[in-house]
Amino acid sequence: MKIISGTLKGRTIDGFNIEGTRPTMDRVKESLFGMIQMYIKDSICLDLFAGSGNLGFEAISNGAKMCYFNDKNPKCIHIINKNIRNFNIEKNAKALNLDYKKCLKFFKEQKIKLDIIFLDPPYKNECLNEVIEFIINEDLLTDSGIIICEVDNNYLKEEYKKLKMIKNRKYGDKFIIIYEKN
User: Fold this and answer.
1) C-alpha of 96 from chain center
2) CATH topology of domain 26-181
3) pLDDT digit of tens for each residue in the chain (182 aa)?
4) For the chain, domain boundaries
5) How far apart are CA 25 and CA 141, in angstroms?
6) Which residues, in sequence order, are bridge partners of residue 119?
7) Cβ distance 33 to 102 under 8 Å?
């Protein structure tokens, strides 16, 4: 698995084979980053269910100022920290080893607002409606911030309070759904 564009283009991301993860395929990632390119520069991102950190590393490579990587699996966090050191991006990245609910509460307590939130939970965990509601209710997203969801079925709403779906694309058995705060 490689970073496909930006300043880290071509660098190999370790962690594609961590049990329980399923990294976003390169063609899906390329299409996704084409859709969100105008949001990335100088953004603060959260890769909430990071796994290998594939999406967060791509965001940093494309100009994100900061990316927080979160996963409850300590093996994932170990590999993410190794990649952060290997890519020499310690000032642009921070790894958190928390349950997703505790992670979102961390951002609320620290009063950190996010420009881009990547949500790619294990497919059997249909928690995204709950996660999106929490993000909106606790005002964790900046004005015009976006949430990117990768799901195996299209069970999400067209709109949430303060969020509007701006993209919905199907790639094989996956959907990429993007919401923007309005």
Assistant:
1) 13
2) Rossmann fold (3.40.50)
3) 899 999 999 999 998 677 666 667 778 899 999 999 999 999 999 999 999 999 999 999 999 999 999 999 999 999 999 999 999 999 999 999 999 999 999 999 999 999 999 999 876 667 899 999 999 999 999 999 999 999 887 778 888 999 999 999 999 888 999 999 98
4) 26-181
5) 26
6) 149
7) no
